[in-house]
Specification:
11 strands; Arc Repressor Mutant, subunit A; Beta-Lactamase; DNA binding; 6-stranded antiparallel β-sheet; 248 residues; HTH iclR-type domain-containing protein; 7 helices; Tscrpt_reg_IclR_N; elongated; 2 domains; alpha+beta; 33% helix
Length: 248
Amino acid sequence: MNYNKYDSYPTPACARGLWILKCLSTNNEGASLDQLHKISEVPKATLSRILETLEMLGLVVKDEAKIYKTDYQIVLAKDSSSSFDDKLFEAMNYLSKQLGYTAEWYVPTLSGMVMKKTMSPLKERRVWAQEGFVRSWGGEVDAVYRVGKRCYGDKAPSNDVAWTYGKKGKKISIPLEKLEEEINELSEEASFADNNFNENGVRRSAISVFVDNKFAGVLALAECWTPTTDLNVNSSLPQLINAYKDFF
């Protein structure tokens, strides 16, 4: 989470504190001040005050090695099991911080697949996609589009034109009949990976997520191009599928 995004909440300090507590609740081994700083992107001075406050409230403890831990978890009172938001947070946190991808969460709308959440890895090369971005049902076709279109079905408007990226970022048009056939070939529990990078040097893999047998959205991994990237295989999809099985 970008530090400045906390400012969009009515009480930014409260949002930061709850987010830090949630980070610690998903890590049994705890985390140091430096680790929490990298994960949250909150300045260390502010982070220290938040942790001190949480300690005073008895929600967080700091051991002799200066590792912060908590025995508390934020869950729905009516359900002691992990809520969907908890599972989504844990999955995105793992995919971004442990595997090094930018994790993205999209929900279906009549306009397209709307990015609602994004979580960046602990490295400089990251995808700077903004929350609120819309992958329209007409135009560019990527992994998020394909999975979303397959699962959203007839609710998604028909597109008049479709294109994707080929080798070296070249745009290639897709006949609509061919696109429809390719999407229908995907299973209802769909997943797909783009091998080619777009003009911004980004490619994605995506998987559908269902809650109570209802399509909830698409979990995606965004990968930046590097000189060592395999241009023929997108290896992020198997990792995304495994994470889906582990966290949902």
